[in-house]
Specification:
The complex is a heterodimer of chains A (about 475) and B (about 300).
Chain A lengths: L1 E3 L14 H6 L18 E16 L2 E8 L5 E7 L3 E8 L8 E3 L20 E7 L6 E6 L6 H6 L4 E6 L9 E10 L15 H9 L5 E4 L2 E2 L2 E4 L4 E8 L6 E4 L5 E6 L2 E9 L1 E4 L4 E7 L7 E6 L18 E8 L9 E3 L15 E8 L2 E2 L11 E4 L3 E8 L5 E5 L4 E6 L2 E2 L8 E4 L3 E8 L5 E7 L2 H6 L2 E7 L4
Chain B lengths: L21 H5 L3 E2 L5 E8 L2 E3 L3 E13 L5 E7 L6 H22 L3 H4 L14 E8 L4 E8 L2 E6 L10 H4 L2 E10 L9 E5 L4 E5 L4 E9 L7 E6 L5 H7 L15 E6 L7 E8 L2 E6 L9 E6 L2
Parallel strand pairs in B: 2-4, 4-9, 10-12
Antiparallel strand pairs in B: 1-2, 2-3, 4-7, 5-6, 5-8, 6-14, 7-15, 8-9, 10-11, 12-15, 13-14, 13-16, 16-17
Classes of the chains: A mainly beta (about 475), B mainly beta (about 300).
Amino acid sequence: MTYLLVAGLLCLSAVAADAQSSASARLLAAPPVLENLSSEPGVVEVKITAAPARLSLLPGVETDVYAYNGSVPGPTLELTEGDRVIVRFRNELPHSTTIHWHGVHLPFEADGSAFHPVAPGEEYVYEFTVHPGTAGTYWYHPHPHHHTAYQVAMGLQGAVIVRDPDDPLAHLSERILFLTDNRFTAEGAIDFAELGSRQARVDAENGREGDVIFVNGQVMPTLEITSGEVQRWRVLNASSARTYLLSLPGHGFLHVGSDGGLFEHPVRTDEVLLAAAERVELLVRGSGNPGDEVTLRSLPYDRYLPQTRPAEWTDTLELLTVRNSEESATDPITLPTTLRPIPALDPADATVTRPMVLTKNRINGQMMDMSRIDEVTELGATEIWEVENLVGMDHSFHLHGVQFQVLDRDGEPEAQPIWKDIVNVPKRSTLRFIVRFDNYPGKWMYHCHILDHEDAGMMGVLEVRPPEP
Amino acid sequence: MIRFARVFLISAVLATVSFSGSHAQDSPAAQSALGHASIQIDALDYAFRVPDEIPSGWVTISFTNHGDEQHFLYIAELPEGKTADDYVVDLTMNLDVAWSAVRDHGMDPDVARRLISSFEWWSPALDQGGAGITAPGRTNELTLYLEPGRYVLDCYLKTEEGEFHTMEGMVHELVVTENVAAVAPPEPDVEVALFNNRMEVSGDLTPGRRTVSVTMAEGRGQTVHVARMRPGDEVQEVDDWMRWLEPGGLMAPGPVEFVGGVHRMPEGGTAYFVIDLEPGRYLFVSQYGAHRGVLQEVTVDP
């Protein structure tokens, strides 16, 4: 069975281009890729160093940042299912840090959570094997207790792409869109709110949002597409707090994947909500005449409490110009209707329904305590987690080390099982997901991925224990 | 909107109550101490778990505090076109300006009060009662009368840092439907009459479970919070703590443990709450604006 991507679907807007501005626009560049130092087949060995740097994030201005291997965003880690991965990490920052491999199914010791801080000047080796069936779009970032938001804002984040050797979409041209935002002083320094200021209060409540939006570290770059060409976009929201409601005006996307890889069935949609730390895979088809442009935008989305809702929340944000290239049109392509089978986890197998009640900076009424185990389960257990957001703003809920399937939202069943490691829980709503704790015992964090909330204590610890002998 | 303490014969069927969270669904209509269905409202640090909608007429609410701090439940009617968000932005943020001037800059409360700007839509006439201050782990069961409409629920006690619980998330919108609850007002054992500047407490103040009626006999907006007074607890300290704009006012943890009561009463209104009296000293005290000394100390003899 095939799914014909008919002409007209997902067409890019035929907006007349401003030739002059187009000519001067910067083309979207992918982040650098980490060099594989291993010559052994099936082994990926890389070196990552976190260190202060001075880079030009804004045109004509140099900014003091923290960078992985000297770039913001950091270099992309390219992996294939089955790879054995060795990351030799060195911390040259003036603070302790970690590298958390967000969404990747790996051993506790390799998770890079706050349980394994790497002191300044120290090294740590992250080792794991990429599980079959986990091809998808992930990312990495620091996770030191109380200091994640600061270190991420300083520039520490990068993409991880896990490929399937039998990827049904491998023939498509691929783009990474790594979304971040930041705030700068007039001198170009990264701007953090003064302690006790109104802005500090807003940041603590909303999570720190920036007024400059970056795609792959570039401001409003131009992505070229050929008329008729279908591109695969891997979109990562690596922002500390900002939620994007993606839209190509008057057109649409074919939504083919989420945090944990491809869907079973593609979904046509005009808008895609992308909360902090979420990822999506989208197919976009170019159409129109050479030089035509359309803007990838983020539409207004109200995730805020009334007392700290930004005045400009109703603004539409422009992220990226998509321009039809001068090349000739390509022929329509066909896509499989089933991208891959995703077996639904069975709620009947769940041994427990675990409530997670979200209030300000608390989960189940408690703030994070590194010495406390909040929840305990057994290796191999299947559980339902019921996440109830009782407050008037959205929270994004992330569980380390595993992928889960959302069952329902306010009682409405999900259309199909998809793999996720983070889910937006809208204000005053409840959702349930099902998860199985395979392979790796250890202490796994769960938390709000609005990083200021995480740092403030909106986090807990689940210990997965081996079965009793 | 206001209903008096009279027997209210209700023949309507018990309304269907839908809940926003499955925890609430676990006990959608628990049996109250008064013998009829009650509506469960939970307080946490800092949020309410509330049904999406509740029936109108006389309703019994079980207000349970699952938090670590004391909480109350203030219920106010929302005028047409106004939302709980408007309430926070127009009222609470407005009051927060004055409070922050006192807390952060040491401004005299009487001076700070002038920073509160007036706006047209809010009025104390919107007060519709609620649950008095309730200590962690306690349930305050109250019966009150609510017309169909839209209401805002609020707890404006303060954290240890002095932040209004409202600003921390304890505000919620509630729909009261046309369906009428099959609840009749209970027969009181104890009666509290509230006046603009005084309070009268009378009735059976002996140990045991007692139903207390509270009538707003004059004016509006007064509250009754019942404090269990331990040896050494000072009445003046409690009364001082009730002044929201004074330094330390309404801030956690509070000077005493509160065990029940009703919140800002509408003009001429009556509400009921249940209290388990044990031998000892109690303070019935009001928290309303700048009024001081609206209180009565009660001793329950063995």
